[in-house]
From TrEMBL:
Gene3D superfamilies: Electron Transport, Fmn-binding Protein, Chain A. It comes from Ganoderma sinense ZZ0214-1. It comes from the Eukaryota. Residues 11-54 form the Pyridoxamine 5'-phosphate oxidase Alr4036 family FMN-binding domain. One of its GO terms (molecular function) is FMN binding. This is Pyridoxamine 5'-phosphate oxidase Alr4036 family FMN-binding domain-containing protein. PANTHER family: AGL049CP, PYRIDOXAMINE 5'-PHOSPHATE OXIDASE ALR4036 FAMILY FMN-BINDING DOMAIN-CONTAINING PROTEIN.
């Protein structure tokens, strides 16, 4: 997503479980780096920037993670009164029933379990509110949504290595205000 009329200031919209350690880590250091490899095209992307995590209002005594002054896009949205909670709800509702069930697990991600067998008792699907038919489904929606946190990443640098072409290429994009500076690098 991006602020209206500013495609040069993108945000990556993703999610996490509010019970994971990364929420506390982001609270103390909002700088992040996302890296992934795309096997089909043989491209590697490393995206550096800032993260803003928006948990359920009742889930975090500290609320959302702070937005640093250098996070131009996030600061702009905050100052314009952007409804981060509405975006959290919209993103949650866009998830599949199976994905929504991942936030309904009774323990925090990374918690030790005795065996995978205990997962069989956990919900495997969580419907949208409008599709809930039982009290149990409504409770699962409430639990799942309370553990769901919106995670917004504001990129300030992108390092793109392409190994699917010969010769290989590597390009760095660095944001300078509202402009992106492109620089070719040795792969």
């Amino acid at each position: 997503m991006e602020p209206d009329g500013h495609p040069e200031l993108p945000l990556f919209v993703t999610s996490t479980d509010a019970r994971t350690p990364k929420v506390a880590q982001a609270r103390s250091n909002p700088r992040v780096e996302v890296a992934w490899w795309m096997e089909g095209t043989r491209d590697q992307f490393r995206i550096s920037g800032f993260v803003h995590i928006v948990p359920a209002p009742a889930k975090s005594k500290d609320g959302s993670t702070p937005i640093p002054a250098e996070a131009t896009t996030l600061k702009s949205l905050e100052e314009s009164g952007f409804d981060f909670e509405a975006k959290r709800k919209e993103t949650f509702d866009a998830m599949s029933t199976v994905m929504r069930a991942t936030w309904c697990v009774p323990v925090a991600p990374g918690t030790r379990i005795e065996s995978y067998e205990e997962q069989k008792a956990w919900p495997s699907e969580v419907p949208l509110e409008r599709d809930a038919k039982t009290d149990e489904e409504r409770m699962n929606i409430e639990v799942s949504f309370s553990n769901f946190a919106l995670m917004l990443v504001e990129p300030v640098q992108v390092d793109w290595v392409s190994l699917g072409v010969l010769p290989y290429s590597r390009v760095s994009f660095t944001r300078d205000g509202g402009n992106w500076i492109e620089q070719q690098l040795v792969p």
